[in-house]
Design brief:
This protein has two domains: 40 residues; 131 residues, no CATH class. 69% of the residues lie in helices and 0% in strands. The chain has nine helices and no strands. Helix 4 packs antiparallel against helix 5. It binds fe (ii) ion (FE2) (2 copies).
Length: 173
């Protein structure tokens, strides 16, 4: 095999390895960040109170049942939607409400802190809180579209572009 071909394949293998290494460090960094968010959640109380005012008063006590780390996650997603200028006002309105209530079922499907830590490492099904959340919202008289979005908010088998956008925030934050 000619020398230049060998050196080219050697270089491309090195680039591939360095990209894989970069991705590995990124993943480790992200997992460390997730651990920190579960163990030491930061909640902007002013933003929290301002945000939940958009919800009917009988929905709010259900959000209070969420753990601090879950409320912090809800607020991060809410803030990201609020600051996304690519959304129309109507889309933003829908996603802000979804951001607040999408994990409302977690107040019912209560898991231990150890379960939550294990979830950062292992793939665990998210179906239970989606179903409980959707049932709770139905009892609270929520709009059918919102109930459907809550039910499907972890589903990858859908072609709703707005929900896909939301999942991008939800998975990352
Ligand atoms: Fe969720
Ligand atoms: Fe979430």
């Amino acid at each position: 095999m000619p020398q230049n071909v060998l050196s080219y394949s050697g270089q491309s293998a090195m680039i591939k390895n360095s990209n894989e290494l970069k991705n590995l460090f990124k993943r480790i960094g992200y997992r460390c960040w997730q651990f920190k968010q579960v163990l030491f959640p930061v909640i902007d109380q002013n933003l929290w109170h301002e945000a939940i005012l958009a919800l009917p008063s009988d929905w709010r006590p259900h959000l209070k049942k969420l753990r601090p780390s879950e409320r912090a996650h809800v607020l991060r997603v809410y803030k990201a939607v609020k600051e996304d200028n690519s959304l129309t006002e109507k889309e933003k309105e829908r996603l802000l409400i979804l951001a607040l209530v999408h994990d409302i079922g977690k107040g019912i499907t209560r898991h231990s802190l150890w379960f939550k830590i294990a979830k950062v490492i292992f793939p665990v099904s998210n179906a239970a809180h989606c179903i409980e959340g959707a049932l709770l919202l139905r009892r609270l008289g929520a709009d059918r579209k919102l109930i459907r979005l809550v039910l499907r908010h972890h589903s990858t088998m859908q072609n709703d572009e707005l929900l896909k956008k939301f999942q991008g925030f939800d998975d990352r934050l």
